[in-house]
Amino acid sequence: MQINAVFVCLFVLIDSGMSWDFFVPVCVGDLVKTGGINQYVVQDVVSAKQLPSYLNKFKAALRSQGPLCILEHFDTGYSVLQHCKSVDLAVKEDTLELLVQVVSGLSVSLPSILVSTSLSAAERKEKLNAVKMSVFLLCKLTENLESDSYRQNIVTATGKGGKKGKAGGEGLMQWDSEREQVLQALVQLFQLDIRSLWSLSLVEEEFISCVTCCCYKLLENPTISHVKSKPTRDCVIHLLGLLIKKYNHLLGAGVKVIQMLQHFEQLSSVFAQAVSVWSTEYGVRAIIGEVIREIGQKSSEELAREGSGVKAFASFLSEVSALVPELMIPNISVLITHLEGESHTMRVAVCEVLGEILVRVLCGDGLDESGRADRDRFFDTLQEHLHDSHSHVRTRVLQVYTRIVNSKALPLCRYSEVMELAVGRLMDKSINVVKSAIQLLAAFIAHNPYSCKLSSADLKKPLEKETAKLRELKEKLEGTAPVAVIKASELWAAMVPELLVTVRKELEPTSEAEKEQQEDEEGGEVEEEKEAEDDRATAVKIAQYLRVNKYSRQLGSDDDTSELNQSLPPTPQKEPEKEGEDGELKKQEMLVQYLKDTETFALQVERAISVINTMLYWKTTSVVQEAVQFCVTVCEFSVANSISGVRKMLPLVWSTDAAIKDAVIQAYRRLYLNPQGDTIRMKAQTLVDSLSELMVDASLGTIQCLEEIVQEFFSSGSNLQSTVVQVLWERFTGKRETSSLYKRAAVLLLGMAARAEREVVLGNLDTLCSVALGEKVTEDFLLARDTVITICNITDHVRQSKGAPFRLPQDHQLFSCLTQAVAEGVVMEDPYWQSFMEQAVRLIYFLAESPDQLCSRLLQRSARLLLDQIAEGGEVNKDAGQMQDGSQESNEQVNCVCLAQLLAVCGCVAFWQVSHLERSVSAELRRRRGETEEREEKEKGPAGKQTANESTMEEELGLIGASAEDTEAELIRNICETELLAEENLLSAFLPLLVRVCSSPGRYSHPQLTTAACLALSQYMMISPSVCEENIRLMFTVLERSTLPVVRANAIIALGDLTVRFPNILEPWTQNLYARLSDEVPSVRQTAVTVLTQLVLKDVLKVKGQVSEVAVLLIDPDSHINSLALNFFNELATKDNAIYNLLPDIISRLSDPERGMSSEDFNTIMKQLFSYITKERQTESLVEKLCQRFRTAKTERQWCDLAVSLSLLSMCERGFKRLQECWECYSDKLTEPGVYQPLLSITAKLRRGAKAQFKAQVDEFEQRLTAVHTRGLENVESPEMDEENQKAEVSAEKTVTRTPAPTRGRLKSKRGQDFVTPHKSRKSKKPAVTFSSDEEEDEEGE
């Protein structure tokens, strides 16, 4: 009864009023335990089944009593928390809705109460308990629902779907919206100043912790940083901001941010935003200092550990600096220490922070002295880390500098220094660093304050001129202004003597005083005191006079004053003229400094362009793309020499990498094919101007590459096409005044357009003939040549069209113009006629009907004109009465150039005649045969099916087509063999002349004649094998004995073509071709290596030991030849085992004493060649082959070369084992340092990273090497030998045999030679142990 009475009393206390206080528990379960005095305890935990009914009562009370109903129904909400895992989701959602309404209701009712001055203690306690209870329940329930949501999210993500998954998904969607409502209600409540509800406004920490734990729980959601979670994220940030500002959560927030960043990397951006909001909108700037201080105190060892959150810290710092950079400056000293740490991630973050500060805070001219000092210090720090040990740091620093330059925040005084560092980073080993350096240099060019259009050469003269002018100004000022440089101290020193004289004269003491002063020495002290007093008085008077500028009173009479003024130097005063001269001097100094900076910048840009241009052909696609973009940027800003990079990247349109090809096409489209202008006409003119500038002085390869891009433009259907074509025709015909260079560019561009649309040129052939091939053709053969190239673009050969060939009749105006121009040019001495003639003959064979007849008439006409010229020259000489010998000499002199040009025509016609037969005629025969077969099949119809079935087997085997093609090929060969050089053919008349000129170099010594004859003879040799065999010896004689490098170079090219056409005839002469690789003239060596590279890589020539001559070119003094040789071996290395098979022979040839190659050159060549040996089996085999060559090597130099070659191999365990097995081959040569040292270096390489067992073998081998080297082979008995002797003795006693390792290796070689089984060989060697090396030496001696 007493217990019941106590409970009744408690219930009465609870019901009667606010005699209890609600304390927020640490754990939810603490509320059911007995608490302290007047502490609220949960009395009734409702079961899960009864909760719906109790919630209905809660709802009714809320409607009737308002939010204070939570005081009576707190147990219901608490029961939901207790049964949270077992109750339905609907119950939790209903409870959550009720609690949100309670908190919202309190937010509405509290404002009027908080401002009330008549609030009683009981009412205050009642409101306070209601706030605590509702917030506690709401926060805890929110945490539970968030945990359920996270678990459900994981289940839904990993499950296969279904009804439960769909239901769970719907619940999650509802929770996202409800979560936002909860946070809004809490924000609305805490925006009120509810601190007054507590006594002394001291809010207990447990209450604030309850709310903050809920907030941080919500932030742990993996999707909190997603866009869809932005409302929730913003509410949490604002709620925490209120708690930090009003409820003393500053320290707790700082610690919690650090903890969560360590465990949740995705929160870096969220907390960066949060810290920014707290410091700006809520004015709590100390939070940044707290967080950064915590990060700064992290040790380098701690950050290096896995899971330390270093990535999150770094990302957080970077994003905070981007949001509030000005607030980072006071705390930057804490972060600077991480620049010396081991974590490169933190170094990157700190550099990014410095970059943000420099871009957004410490920029501009308005900085005070402290700001400038900080800026300079930060820039120095960034520059230091351009040389950071980690490539990622270097990359990020370069990117930071790129942003600084783009933001124009880099001081002008640092441009040169930073750009020099950026150019240096182009040589970095890291690809990412190189790309970032290219981007930085592009930013420098885009935002530079100098004039990029001038090159350093253009700036040199203005700089010298202005520097001389500055020197003159300085000399002028030094000569006229000696007075102006007198200092005040020097002026006073000059005035002192006169001033002292005057002062003593005017202010000297009385004579009585002097007498008294001289009377007695005993009164000296008194007199000194008086004198001191007089001096002080005198000084005071002088100061007074000087203060009021009364110089006349101080100095005495006017006469004395005037005399003194005359004796004193004048007071320095700046005259207006001198001030103007000083200003002019300063302006000149600024101008000279600007020119110096501009020249330095231009030199750095030129250096960067030259380096980046080489990157256009790197193997890394991303670097090539960056280099292409750099070239575009440089060209867009009209930088000097920018066109070089644009031209150099043109061949990349043929790249097999689609990304590179697309980048180049887009670059040219951006530079040239998207012109700017107000009208279509202006755009077309701009496009033509830019393309013409690119084509001026461009090489043939550049023009061919440009064709692809221009053809794409004309194939794209642009609305500029017709206008561009019109502008080009206007330039070509001269309607618009333009230079001959741009006229040639216009006609070439028209030819490129004709590849896409034939009518562009075909419809204007008359115009082309009249303008470029008419009467004035001899005035400009270059324009005529380019016009012929343009017309060639409408032929089938260029367009690769199928069907009936497109050809023009022989009497067309075009061919009459061409034949006349070529024939007339034969008797002229125009240096450009040759190239025109070659293109003209080519066009005749491509476009004319029966071109052989046209060319025959061309040869006749050319020969007749030449004979007429000779006859005219003879008549003139005869009329002049000259001697016969003199006339012959004159004739020879006149005829040499013209005869050379006639022979060139003959050779060109012969070459294109063969090409015409084998390409055009053969293709036409195949086409006609195909048409005939189709026609016959149609005529046969159904009746011919049986016959067709009979020939099915032959068709499947390809016998019908093959036999027909063979017949056609045989026909072409017979024509070449019998008809082309028959007597009735005009070509045959010139062959003896060609042979005579080539075989008589002493008589026909004119360089042009010799060159033309040699080239024409080689073209004649292409006609048939018989002609080739008859003249092959003569051609090689010319190749070896001609004194003209151009003749030798042309002969190499011609013989390369002949090797492709008649490989069997040229095969015995291969050695003569390789001999030209050692020609004394670089141009001949370059041509030789180019031709041989093509022949070898196309498998026309078999790769033999002569390749050693190409290897010698790896050390050629000419860098271009060096690179060609390197390219040869790079390509050869792609063929299976090619270099591996050649290496032994190359080593033997290069180490031959007769060659006399230095050891340094040999090492350089071998180092490059051995870099291609990467397979382990190849290395093992080479070790054995090289060791065996020690036996045949005769000189010490050959031994050393073999040892060096062994040391250059990337040795492995198998190779080392083979090296040990071949010990007998080289052991007797180890006394030579040149053999010992390379082999010793092998052991040093093998020891790196080797396992213990293998390292012991290497050490043992090294000991053997050293022992033999120091004492000689005959004085050293190796451990293996001891073991052999011991085992031999044991085997003799016990009749148990076991062959030692070295003997086993030797016997293997014997078995391989004598075909003896292993058992027999062992028995035969059992009685005695011998050394195979000794045996072989004895045999060699015999």
Automatic annotation (TrEMBL):
GO biological process: cell division; meiotic chromosome condensation; mitotic chromosome condensation
Compositionally skewed regions (Acidic residues) per UniProt: 517-532, 1333-1342
Compartment(s): Chromosome; Cytoplasm; Nucleus
Gene Ontology cellular component annotations, sorted alphabetically: condensed chromosome, centromeric region; condensin complex; cytoplasm; nucleus
Function: Regulatory subunit of the condensin complex, a complex required for conversion of interphase chromatin into mitotic-like condense chromosomes. The condensin complex probably introduces positive supercoils into relaxed DNA in the presence of type I topoisomerases and converts nicked DNA into positive knotted forms in the presence of type II topoisomerases.
PANTHER family attached to this UniProt entry: CONDENSIN (PTHR14222), CONDENSIN COMPLEX SUBUNIT 1 (PTHR14222:SF2)
Descriptive protein name: Condensin complex subunit 1
